[in-house]
Design brief:
single chain; two-stranded antiparallel ribbon; mainly alpha; 2 domains; 12 strands; 409 residues; globular; 15 helices
């Protein structure tokens, strides 16, 4: 805990995309100078950008790329599950439809940390089996459609605090088909996040009217009107969910979430070594944008959000040798999220995603507004990271072994 009368603006800074980029840049410069555990091979940047561009052209030949978000995962296996959802929501008003979809995606993203190499989910309707992000998405979608997250049997397609606070391991194991032979990483961490979300909906009822996560829509409209900045959505997410993250740094009694102490930046200023990423919160922000747009509310400034410091984007950099570990023994060890090595890896990911995106825009002669980072990620770097992981390793696991509690990766 850091509690020394820290200025409110310094706390706000650490919750901003600006801080994510600036602190990551500081780590990047240290690595570039030879300090740190990674060597950066910038001469490979163009080659990596070309690799990503091939993936983009394969996925979206006309470059009509959606934002990187949870929504595409719900459609895995070429099944239009969202059509089924829209059909069930057809009698609702425009805003109520948006609230229902925000409910769904908020819970789904919080359950989206890495599943591990062996877990899978059988979609009983299609008979198809899905792993990793798609499997997690479909499992959470099916639970939502079955009313698992609603305490109101007359309104099953909603999420409310009363239901979430009584969420337990048995419900998650049943919904995600977890067994001794189908283990899911970070099981307890996921259950805890959902229960803590329930408490946050009650404690932050200024943001979540009627204790529903989807009512963040009302908070945004009341405060920002019909034209919202993406950063405003991120701020609402960070403030609304600040209490749900376990064992994190606290400043002035505020849980900072995905913010970590990097030892090589330490100085007499206790805040100088803090490196923020806000990966899940930004992934959530990207995923909230689509339902908000469907409610005919404008969202601008999406290009100001950062890349996501997670294992697909970061794995791409290692697998394509844009960065390489100086000590190859670290490839066989398991690493915690608060270790200097993982913090450095994630910071390099933030900086190099921006550089890859700039390179691709230059090749396509497109602006940041025309091709924001959110589209490069979706097109894009995330898929490229998965593709090369599958080429290099049988199970498609990331190049680094991560000790996951279900709340970061």
């Amino acid at each position: 805990m850091i509690d020394m009368g820290v200025k409110a603006e310094d706390v706000r800074y650490l919750l901003s995309p600006k801080a994510i980029r600036e602190r990551s840049q500081q780590v990047f410069q240290l690595s570039l100078s030879g300090t740190g555990q990674f060597k950066i091979n910038l001469e490979r940047l163009d080659e990596v950008a070309d690799y990503v561009l091939v993936v983009i052209n394969n996925n979206y030949p006309n470059l009509d790329i959606p934002f990187h978000s949870r929504w595409s995962h719900f459609q895995a296996g070429n099944i239009d599950r969202l059509k089924e959802l829209d059909r069930k929501l057809t009698n609702l008003s425009l805003y109520d439809k948006a609230r229902a979809k925000l409910d769904l995606v908020l819970v789904s993203v919080l359950l989206d940390a890495g599943a591990g190499d062996t877990w899978c989910y059988l979609d009983k309707k299609s008979g198809q089996t899905f792993k990793r992000s798609e499997g997690l998405a479909i499992a959470s979608f099916d639970m939502y459609m079955a009313g698992v997250f609603s305490s109101d049997k007359l309104n099953p397609l909603q999420v409310d605090a009363k239901s979430l606070m009584f969420f337990n391991r048995e419900k998650l194991e049943l919904g995600f088909q977890v067994s001794q032979h189908n283990p899911l990483e970070g099981l307890e961490g996921r259950v805890s996040l959902i229960c803590e979300l329930g408490k946050a909906l009650v404690n932050k009822d200024d943001i979540f009217k009627d204790h529903r996560p989807g009512n963040i829509l009302d908070f945004l409209i009341d405060n920002y009107g019909q034209n919202i900045q993406a950063e405003d959505i991120l701020n609402a997410v960070l403030n609304g969910f600040s209490d749900i993250w376990p064992g994190r740094i606290s400043i002035n009694n505020m849980n900072m979430g995905d913010v970590w102490q990097y030892s090589l930046l330490k100085s007499t200023d206790p805040l100088s070594c803090l490196v923020p990423f806000h990966k899940l919160s930004q992934w959530l922000t990207y995923s909230l944008i689509e339902p908000i747009l469907e409610a005919e509310i404008e969202v601008n400034g999406v290009e100001n959000l950062t890349g996501l410091a997670e294992y697909r984007n970061g794995g791409l950099l290692i697998d394509k040798q844009l960065i390489e570990l100086k000590d190859k023994n670290n490839l066989t060890k398991s690493h915690l999220a608060n270790s200097d090595l993982i913090i450095e890896w994630r910071a390099l990911t933030i900086v190099l995603l921006d550089k890859i995106a700039d390179n691709i825009r230059e090749k396509l002669n497109m602006s940041k507004e025309e091709l924001p980072l959110a589209k490069v990620l979706e097109g894009g770097t995330w898929w490229a990271g998965r593709t090369i992981a599958q080429e290099k390793r049988h199970r498609g696991e990331p190049p680094l072994k991560l000790h996951s509690d279900g709340t970061v990766f």
